[in-house]
């Protein structure tokens, strides 16, 4: 399947986009259909993120990039978020006490 297929489930119109996965160096990659890129408001060089919701579905979103203060390095902030994700249960337990 190549392109867009309009689906109707539970009276809600859905659009399904289909693309083949290709090789990009040692990684895998996929192109975005023009209509989907427009809907996400992304262009060349933008970052996207993949978020798994509570039903196990993967949601594609444009990454929000904020301006960091000059004294904060991005890799330090990324390490902080990694620790936060690993210890989220502990932090929620402390919050609820």
Summarize the structure.
With 97 residues, the chain is an alpha+beta fold. Helix content is 30%, strand content 31%.
Name some characteristics of this structure.
single chain, 97 residues, two-stranded antiparallel sheet, 31% strand
What order do the helices and strands come in, and which of them pair?
Blueprint: E1 3-9, E2 12-18, E3 22-24, E4 27-29, H1 34-40, E5 48-52, E6 58-62, H2 74-86, H3 88-96
Antiparallel strand pairs: 1-2, 3-4, 5-6
How would you describe the overall organization of this protein?
The chain has helices at 34-40, 74-86, 88-96; strands at residues 3-9, 12-18, 22-24, 27-29, 48-52, 58-62. The longest helix has 13 residues, at 74-86. The chain is built from three helices and six strands; from the N terminus they run E-E-E-E-H-E-E-H-H. The model has no long low-confidence stretch (mean pLDDT 82). Strand 1 and strand 2 (12-18) form a beta hairpin. The radius of gyration is 18 Å and the shape is extended. The strands form three sheets. It has a two-stranded antiparallel ribbon with strand order 1-2. A two-stranded antiparallel ribbon has the order 3-4. Strands 5-6 form a two-stranded antiparallel ribbon. It is an alpha+beta fold. 30% of the residues lie in helices and 31% in strands.
